[in-house]
Amino acid sequence: MATLHIRNLKDSAKEGIRVRAAVHGRSMEAEARAILEQAAARPEPREHLYLRVRKLVEKYGPMDVEIPPREGLTGAQFVQLMRAAVDNYGPLDIEIPPRGQSHREIPDFS
Predict the structure, then answer these.
(1) Region 23-30 average pLDDT
(2) Are residues 73 and 50 in contact, defined by beta-carbon separation less than 8 angstroms?
(3) How many whole angstroms separate alpha carbon 28 and alpha carbon 20?
C-alpha cells in the first residue's frame, strides 16, 4: 500500500471531507481514500468518449467513418461518429412543437 501526503488543501475541501466522512460513518482518512479510489477508477473524459464510440460500433455495426486511436479521439470526431451511426437509419421526422408560454400558471411567491 502506498502513502500519500497532500499539502496546501483548502480549508473548505478539508471541511467537506470531514462532513462526508461523518455522513458515511468513517474517518476522514478513510473518506479521502474512498474519494481518491473512486476518482481514479473513473475513465478520463477522452477515454469515456472512446468507450462510448466502441459501444456505438458494437450496437449499430460498422460505419463509413474511421475510428481514431483511443488517445486521439476528439469531441468533434465523437459527434461525427455518432452522426454516422444515426445516418444508417435515415433522417428523423420529428415534429417539434413551437415554443411559447406554457399553460401553467406562474406561481406567486409574495
Answers:
(1) 95
(2) yes
(3) 8
Mean pLDDT of 95-107: 69
- Decide: 31 and 37 in contact? Cβ < 8 Å: no
Q: What average pLDDT does the structure give for the chain? A: 78
Cα 89 to Cα 39: distance, rounded to the nearest angstrom: 37
Q: In whole angstroms, what is the distance from residue 5 CA to residue 3 CA?
A: 7
CA distance from start to end of the chain: 59
Q: How far is CA 32 from the centre of its chain?
A: 21
The radius of gyration of the chain from alpha carbons, rounded to an integer in Å, stands at: 23
96, pLDDT greater than 90:
no
Contacts of 74 (CB under 8 A, 6+ apart): 68
Asked whether the whole model's pTM tops 0.85, one would answer: no
Which amino acid would we find at residue 65? V
Q: Are 66 and 57 contacting, i.e. CB atoms less than 8 angstroms apart?
A: no
Residue with the three cell numbers 479521502 = 32
